[in-house]
Design brief:
The protein is α/β, with parallel strands linked by helices. The protein has helices spanning 93-102, 121-134, 174-187, 223-240, 252-263, 274-278, 299-311, 326-329, 332-335, 346-355, 362-369, 371-377; strands at 24-33, 38-46, 49-51, 61-65, 70-73, 75-80, 105-110, 138-143, 163-164, 191-193, 214-215, 218-219, 244-246, 268-272, 316-317, 391-401, 420-430, 433-437. The protein has 2 domains: 24-72 and 385-437, Roll (Urease, subunit C, domain 1), CATH 2.30.40; 74-377, TIM Barrel, CATH 3.20.20. The protein contains 12 helices and 18 strands. The strands form 4 sheets. Strands 1, 2, 3, 4, 5, 16, 17 and 18 form an 8-stranded mixed β-sheet that branches. Strands 6-7-8-9 form a 4-stranded parallel β-sheet, sandwiched between helices. Strands 10-13-14-15 form a 4-stranded parallel β-sheet. Helix 2 links the parallel strand 7 (105-110) and strand 8 (138-143). The longest helix has 18 residues, at 223-240.
């Protein structure tokens, strides 16, 4: 595969130290992604927004020589676990958003698996206050669908939440989900659904219906536990018309259901993770870094997800960044906690294994990480004059090795440990300020 050819060399690119006294940033000679293609031009940021290059309102300007560098809108992740409040020993908003900007993400949507659960205005404010104090990027929190995520009483969403989700559990009762969708339709609220029928799953991740995938002696959570709930929810979406988003889609049957729902004109979107796109059950090892929910599926499922990327069924790539302590992840497949980290290497593994192997285009990958998730949450996106200066700079030729010991996240468990990749985040700019710049 011929690598994406950007004219110019970045050999002369300077290693710069952030000038905290600078009022603006000038990104010069970069290849700017506009949602469809690239064009080489300069970008000027001042007062937190992107300005026309001639409208220089700033006295002090920090210059970045971006010759040979991709200039993208900041990445947007619709599904992360920041763990705070309640589980700060796993991750904090400070460490999780430091990981986000190191991975090129300027916006993340945090899930409500917290203590206290953000199921009312008071609990949501606890999280919002920490975000305001510690976040290094934009954080849009999800509230829960039900009180304490127990699947019973419906929550009323409050200002400041991006939507509602009972991620990790899902809503098991059909009538509760129907009422939640009716309420969501009235308030124009996005429902982000973790689809997993708990009747088919026991606490160890095994199944009760005899339908399972087994490789190397490991039994995974059945595919039917996912697509049964997707099918149920799509029937309810057809009745209620609410905005509905499928979290971490992993099965070929689920892809088929979403594709059909979209062809019927339903307001449905979905996301997929890097690990479900790049790995399958054949790759599983008896190691906690391979334990996640949903689990790695069959090769046929993985191929169906790739097809969903290509035909537009899948709307976004989300990491499902789910940090745990080393202790929680060192107990093998059976004993380890569910979840892996992904913010700091998501772009690079996808660029290496999908773009450089000519499976999808670079433009497609960036679109799935920027413009498309922005549309789902109603956010502005694009390196355009007047937009917020949320920008990610990428060196497409930079080679590096994924070493979790260097992660900013407290979580260190990734199935991509030791993988050699290309494509490195050089700068992440949030609200016109440099939130991250890569060391040599």
């Amino acid at each position: 595969m011929k690598e994406f050819d950007f004219e110019g060399s970045n050999e002369s690119k300077k290693e710069l130290v952030v000038n905290l006294n600078s009022e603006g940033i000038s990104i010069e000679n970069g290849f700017v992604f506009n949602g469809e293609s690239f064009s080489q031009k300069d970008v000027f940021c001042c007062e937190g927004v992107i300005k026309n290059i001639n409208d220089n309102f700033c006295d002090e300007v920090y210059k970045i020589d971006a010759n040979g560098i991709l200039v993208s809108p900041g990445f947007i992740d619709l599904h992360v676990h920041l763990r705070e409040p309640g589980f700060e020993y796993k991750e904090t908003i400070k460490t999780g958003t430091a990981a986000a900007v190191a991975g090129g993400f300027t916006t993340v949507c945090s899930m409500p698996n917290l203590n206290p659960v953000p199921d009312n205005k008071k609990n949501l404010k606890i999280q919002q206050d920490i975000i305001k104090k510690d976040a290094r990027c934009r954080v849009f929190p999800f509230m829960s669908i039900t009180t304490n995520r127990n699947g019973e009483k419906i929550v009323l969403p409050h200002e400041g939440s991006i939507g509602i989700s009972d991620d990790g559990d899902g809503v098991q009762d059909d009538n509760v989900m129907a009422r939640a969708m009716m309420q969501a339709k009235k308030t124009n609220t996005l429902i982000s659904a973790h689809c997993e029928d708990k009747k088919l799953v026991d606490p160890l991740g095994c199944i009760h219906d005899g339908i399972y995938s087994q490789k190397n002696g490991f039994i995974g959570i059945s595919s039917v536990s996912e697509y049964n709930q997707i099918e149920r929810d799509l029937k309810l979406v057809k009745k209620t018309g609410c905005k509905y988003h499928v979290c971490h889609l992993s099965t070929k049957e689920g892809i088929h259901l979403v594709r059909r729902a979209k062809s019927d004109g339903l307001p449905v979107t979905c996301e997929v993770t890097p690990h479900h796109l790049l790995l399958c059950e054949d790759d599983i090892k008896d190691d906690g870094s391979f334990k996640m929910a949903p689990p790695l599926r069959s090769r046929n499922d993985k191929e169906a997800l790739i097809e969903g990327l290509l035909d537009g069924t899948i709307d976004a790539i989300a990491t499902d960044h789910a940090p745990h302590t080393v202790y929680e992840k060192e107990k093998g497949l059976l004993g380890s906690a569910m979840g892996i980290v992904g913010l700091e290497c998501a772009f690079s593994v996808l660029y290496t294994d999908l773009v450089l192997k000519n499976i999808i285009s670079l433009e497609k990958l960036l679109f799935l990480m920027t413009f498309s998730p922005a549309k789902i949450i109603g956010a502005k996106c694009g390196v355009y004059s007047g937009n917020n200066a949320d920008i990610t700079l990428i060196d497409p030729k930079k080679e590096w090795t994924i070493k979790s010991c260097n992660f900013f996240s407290k979580g260190k468990s990734t199935p991509f440990e030791g993988k050699k990749v290309k494509g490195k985040i050089i700068y992440t700019i949030v609200d016109g300020k440099i939130a991250y710049n890569s060391p040599k």
